[in-house]
Design brief:
Length: about 120
């Protein structure tokens, strides 16, 4: 019975010694998995940050393009307004009548040419 108890005690000690090794192996595996997960999260975060930066860059470019177009439109509007003011200031009633008469004569000549061509 004593030898049986000793054998059983030895088996328990061996299992206990193995449990310590198993715990260490599990700890090492957990550490490797944690490091791998940390790396995966870091890569996902970097990719996400890259996408955000690209989207922001595209939005800024689009806003700048829109602003340039609006500025060009505003500048053209101002130029037309200034030209109109200058024309109005430079054209008196007699010049206005001459322009209208010339335009009417040009239209009549074109109509006559078109009738002759038919």
């Amino acid at each position: 019975m004593k030898s049986e108890a000793e054998a059983q005690a030895k088996a328990i000690e061996q299992r206990l010694a193995g449990v310590g090794k198993e715990v260490e192996a599990l700890k090492a595996e957990a550490a490797r998995e944690l490091a791998a997960e940390g790396e995966r999260i870091a890569q996902a975060t970097a990719a996400s940050l890259q996408r955000v930066q690209e989207n922001t860059s595209h939005e800024i470019e689009a806003l700048a393009k829109t602003a340039r177009m609006e500025l060009k439109s505003y500048a053209a509007s101002l130029a037309l307004s200034l030209a109109e003011q200058q024309l109005r200031a430079g054209i008196d009633q007699a010049a206005d009548s001459r322009l209208a008469d010339g335009f009417t004569a040009d239209l009549a000549a074109r109509a006559a040419d078109a009738r002759r061509a038919q």
